[in-house]
Amino acid sequence: MKNWILAASCTAFAAACFIETLSFPSAGAMYRSPAIYPQVVIAIIVVLCVVLVAGEALKKMQSATPAFPSKASLRLPVLLVAALVAYYVLMPLIGFVIATFTFIAIVFMLFGGRLLPGSGFAAIMTAGQYVLFAVWLDVRVPDPVIAFIKHSLSG
Q1: Closest by alpha carbon to 35, among 45, 46, 19, 24?
Q2: CA 118 to CA 124: how far, in whole Å?
Q3: How much is the CA Rg of the chain, to the nearest whole Å?
Q4: What is each CA distance from 8 to 5, 44, 52, 61, 139, in whole angstroms?
């Protein structure tokens, strides 16, 4: 049951993100639209949610006893959705680097990881994502902290 809730929540989040990408500015004929990458990621999320629901449906067809979720089994999906919403809301305010690092570290610990390895993993993943998107793909990411540091050093 918790996988159904997780899939529904992630699909709703993906739909909200897709609607947000419709407001992105259009690019000329020679350039890619800035909405292409987010829409690809959204499509991947929706496909993974469909796979999750299909797997859950197969599991339910194989089991004879109906399973009702307990409060403990709903804890992880609810916390993951809360982390996703917080990440979405806080990214423009605190920037890509801090929001992504915090989100990855929290998700790592929600799945049973420890703080120190989770922080290292989050730092590596955040750096990799920043290099991939901001440097290689030249995607503008929210970076109020980096802009503040650059402005402080230059003046």
Answers
A1: 24
A2: 10
A3: 19
A4: 5, 14, 10, 19, 29
pLDDT tens-digit readout, 59-97: 777 765 555 666 767 788 888 889 999 998 888 888 888
Sign of the Cα pseudo-torsion (141, 146, 151, 154, in order): negative
* pLDDT tens profile 40-50: 888 888 888 88
In this structure, what are the phi and psi dihedrals at residue 82, rounded to the nearest 5 degrees?
A: -60, -40
- Interhelix angle 96-110/71-94, nearest 10 degrees: 170
Query: pTM higher than 0.70 for the full model?
Result: no
**Residue 90 corresponds to which tokens in the numbers above?**
């806080």
Name residue 113's amino acid.
G
Total residue count of the chain as it appears in this document: 155
Angle between helices 115-130 and 96-110 (to 10 degrees): 140
Amino acid of residue 110: L
